[in-house]
Q: What sequence folds into this?
């Protein structure tokens, strides 16, 4: 059972454009993940695909099902919200855990730990 025959051409073009944009952004994030060498560089690349790529695919799904069901469909927004909220938190936790592990093992190439600001005088902060 295909509803493709029931879709107006402008809806099919709009949904296809958003799907292609989402797929392209996800591909760019995947290529960046492959090309970067260290974990600290790689941690940033997938966020492109999970934020803007997911948003584009969710928008295309909302448009398609709104037209097919003849009523506004908004529950896909929850998917976008959950992905947008959980991705940065997960990446920060992974980054901090890796940084802690690398510092405790004394691995080379790890960013140095900053000195706390509370021990400095006001003139030294500038």
A:
């Amino acid at each position: 059972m295909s509803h493709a025959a029931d879709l107006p051409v402008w809806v099919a073009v709009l949904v296809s454009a958003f799907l292609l944009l989402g797929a392209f952004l996800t591909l760019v994030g995947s290529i960046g993940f492959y090309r970067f060498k260290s974990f600290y560089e790689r941690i940033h690349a997938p966020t492109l695909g999970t934020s803007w790529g997911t948003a584009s695919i969710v928008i295309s799904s909302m448009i398609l099902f709104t037209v097919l069901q003849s009523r506004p469909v908004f529950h896909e927004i929850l998917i976008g919200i959950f992905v947008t909220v959980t991705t940065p938190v997960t990446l920060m936790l992974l980054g901090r855990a890796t940084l802690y592990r690398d510092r405790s093992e004394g691995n080379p190439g790890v960013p140095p730990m900053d000195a706390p600001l509370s021990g400095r005088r006001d003139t030294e902060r500038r």
In short: The two ends are 68 Å apart (CA to CA).
